[in-house]
Every structure is written in structure tokens, then in C-alpha cells.
Amino acid sequence: MSFRLALIDYKLLDPLSSPWVGLDHFQTIFTGYSLFWTAVTNTGLYALFINLGTLPLAMTFAYCLSNVVRGRNLYQWALFLPVVVSMAAISLLFRFMMDPSGILNHILKLLGLPPSKWLAGILSALPSIALVALWKGLGGNIVILAAGFLGIPVELYDAAKVDGANAWQTFWHITIPLLGPTLKLVVILITIGSLQAYTSAIVLTNGGPGRRTFMISQFIIEEAFSNFRFGLASAAAFVLFFIIFVVTLVQIRMMRTEWEY
Amino acid sequence: MGILKSKLKQGLVHAVLMIGMAAALFPFLWMALGSVKTYKEMLLPRFFPTIWTLDNYREILTRVGFLTAFKNSALVAIPATAMVLFTSAAAGYVFAKYHFWGKEVLFTILLSTMMVPFTVVVIPLFITMNDLGLVNKLTGILITSLCSTFGIFLMRQAIMVVPNDYVEAARIDGASEFWIFSRVVIPLVRPSLATLAVFTFLGNWDSYMWPSIMLRTASRQTLPVVIAGMRNLYVVRYQIWAAGSMLTVVPVMILFTLAQKQFVRGMTLSGLKG
User: Do A230 and B121 touch (CB under 8 A)?
Assistant: First the structure.
């Protein structure tokens, strides 16, 4: 139904008179509408930022969480807390923390770093909303990875120790390959999640400044429900679906050849 | 030497986790403190306010229609959770224990719909709701959240582990299918149901995109929509934002603290689905 909608010029008030326009909508978003490409680029960069930021952090915390002897529940509770609360409330919270004279800049100053414009800066806006999403999603990724770490048999580490492997070799040749499937899953989950990002971008920046945080989802929703161009929006939605589909397939392929033993 | 090394390692592990804990908790602490501050003190780099005030909460509760929004959210999230538990368990039971033509194909199709992002279905869904006259009604939100593919999958996995002998034995004793379902199967998969319940409740409670499209009248909006609307209603009055966020977040935090195990289990299971 979504695909059919993309091919017609849907009139909400009088659906039966909607003319068939074929692939025109696809042509429009691909060639005549630079805003769509802005949205695609922003969304892609955003997904990349979150992946690059989350993986090392989540790996570190997951390793610690799976190795800690006492207090695991407390740590898990704290790390997981951001995951369960509403994104709309979190976005408001970060919006006032990221005020140019807000607490985050005070903290930067305390650490001897220059202040950032955060959400108001042309270059810093996208990384800032990525940071919020990273903070919110980290706990879930930690929990999934920690389960992966706990699934690695201890005997393998013992064997490596007997063979005289150092910590780095152990990490690179035992942990990473055996964690491979879990890691792959985390990357896919983060990517699919961030390609659909909507709430944080709407509440934190509403696409600004200067469309620097304008996401594909916002493009779709605005075209459909503010401009009432349902056909165009459906075409964009279909492209988003296709992108997610391809990204998932590519990631499954790529990581399989790399890590399957 | 081994003992010393493992002690050192534990110390390091604790240090890293404490940094993580601080980073996760600090924004909530700042929000809690901000909600009892006056506007003048919101942006100062001081921890505790000099003047403590509850005015922000008063403002939220009396002027924003917060209680109505809270009620609306509950009216969606609670029935939706109850229904999802029933539909998921029933469909999961059928997929796990019955044999019928085309079952595998049907299940595969069902699973593949999990990959379709909500933004892709939102337009046809809206048009359908418009045709049914359910736009700007809470029923329109509720009716779209009565089934969950993830729930069906989760319950199927759980019910598959229930030994067939139990089901067969009850059947030989002359129990009806519904009796087997409700008295034999359900009690055995209670942990999975609990996990599904907290996940579904939370998903509905926190949901923003769909309610924000569907609900235009202020008195019918759910909590996240009202909260997000505050950024325009109270431009840069951060202390009011903090109070509103507090009231949204604290009930969920309490729920999470009580049901941490179910949440974490659900997270690792939702990982397995991929």
C-alpha cells in the first residue's frame, strides 16, 4: 500500500480522483529536491557518529560489567536507566543542559576545554543530537554485549594464557572473533535505530540550524502531514525502507566473511 | 601476585563502571535539582539552589494539563499492554504447538515485517485511520497497538520450550483447548509474559511519533506529546521543562527499579531476534 501511494498523487479529501503519476515522485526526490539529499546525508552521518561513538564505549563498559564481582546489579541499573525513559523528556533535559551557558559548557570549562555551541552550532548540532542518542541507547548495547562476553568460555582464555598470549593478542584473537555475532547485531540495531531517528531531532533542534539536523523521518512526516504531499512522502519512505534493507544485508554479509571461523 | 593482580583489575573495573554510572545518572540529577530551582539559578554552575521552590510543579500541574496527559497515556498504555499479552500468547501458542499448512511461510512473513520501519507504514496507517474516523482520538492510537510481532515471536520461543507431553496429557484428560492454553501453558511462560508486559507498556508510554501525528487537540494528547510541546509553550523556561521531565521520567524509573530483571532480559532477547 505504501508503494502504491508513492505512485499516485493522493488526495486525502477525495482519494478516488487521485491521478496515477508513476515514478514521478521518485524522480522528484532524487533529482529535483535537494532537501531530500540533505536529509539522507544528515541521517547517514548521524548513524555513523552513533556507531563510532557507541562501539568502543559499549565494549569497554560491557567488558567491565561482565567481569565485575560485586555490585553488578547496581551498575546495570544505572547504565540502563537512560534506555527506559521517554525520548521526549530526555530531549528537553539535554536541550537545557546544552544551552550555550548551560551545565555542559561549565563542565568543559572545568576540564580546561573551549566551550561548544552544541545545538546552535552549524557543525556541532548533528554530533550533539548523536551524543544524546548515544547516551540514551548505550545501556541497551552494553547489556547485549555483556551477555556476549559472558558467553565466551573461560577455558579459551586459560588456554591462551598457557600459550603465553598477551592481553592485546587475547583480545584480538579470542574476544573479537567470538563476540563477532553479538557485535554485528549491535551494529545492525544501532544503524537501523538511528536511520529512523525522529523524536530527538524534532524536540532538540527541529531540523535546524539551517537544516543541519534534518532527518529522513522528518522529511517524510513533514511532506505528508504538513504539506499533504502523501505520494512524495511515500516515495521517500520507500527509499528509507530500501536503504535500511540494503544496509542490513550488507552488514550481515560483510561481517560474516570477516569473522566467521 | 595473582591475587594482587586480580584485586588491581577489580579496582580498575569498578573505576570504569563508576565513571559510566556518573555519566548515566548526572543528567537525571541535574534535572531533579533544576526542577526545584528558580529561573535565575538554572544556568549557574552551582549544584544546589539557594531558593528551593515547588512553583514549577504547580505550574505544570495546573496549567499544562499534565494530569490529563498522564491519564491519556495510561488509557493507551494499560489496555494496549493487556491486549498485546493476550494476542501474543495466543498467536505464539498457535505457532509453537499447532501444525497447519503454510505455518512456516506465515511465520517468516510475520517476522520480516519487524524490519519495516514505522515511518514506512505511517502514511497508509494514517489514511486508514482517517477513513475510520479515528484521527485525533485515543482509540486510533490504541487500535494500532493491540498486536506486536515481537511479542508473538517472544511468546512462540517461550511456549516451544513447554514439553508437548503436558499439552497432550491435558488433552487426553478431556481439557478444552482454551483450558490448556490458560491453565497449562500460560502459568509456565509467566517470566516471558512479564518481560513482554514491561516492554510493551514502556513502548506505548514513551511513544511519540504516532501520537504526535494523530492527536491534534491538546486535551487528547499523551504525555510525550505534551512534554515535547512545552519547548514552544515555555520558550527557554528551563525550570518548567525540568519539572515536566521529572514527572514524566520518575514513574518509569520506579517501574524499572522494580522490574529491572524483566527489562534486561527483554533487551537481550530483543537482541536475539536479529
Answer: no
Q: How deeply is B248 buried, as exposed, middle or buried, from its count of CB atoms within 10 A (0-12, 13-18, 19+)?
A: buried
> B8 Cβ partners below 8 Å, 6+ apart?
none
**Residue contact A96–B34, C-beta within 8 A:** yes
Question: What ranges do the domains of chain A cover?
Answer: 2-9+18-259
With beta carbons under 8 A apart, name residues in chain A contacting B238: 96, 99
Q: Which class in CATH covers the domain with range A2-9+18-259?
A: mainly alpha
The CATH architecture assigned to B53-164+190-272 reads Orthogonal Bundle (1.10)
| Backbone φ/ψ region at B38: left (φ over 0), alpha (ψ -120 to 50), beta | beta
Q: Identify the bridge partners of residue A8 per DSSP, sorted by sequence position.
A: A20
| ipTM of the complex, rounded to two decimals | 0.84
How far apart CA B225 and CA A92 sit, in angstroms, is: 12
Say yes or no for a CB contact (<8 Å) between B10 and A60.
no
- At A228 the three-state DSSP class reads coil
Question: Could you report the per-residue pLDDT of A130-184, keeping only the tens digit for each?
Answer: 999 999 999 989 988 988 888 888 888 888 888 888 878 888 888 888 888 888 8
User: What pTM value is reported for the model?
Assistant: 0.85
Residue among B203, B239, B211, B193 nearest B92 (CA): B193
Beta carbons within 8 Å of B124's beta carbon, 6+ residues apart: A1, A2, A5, A234
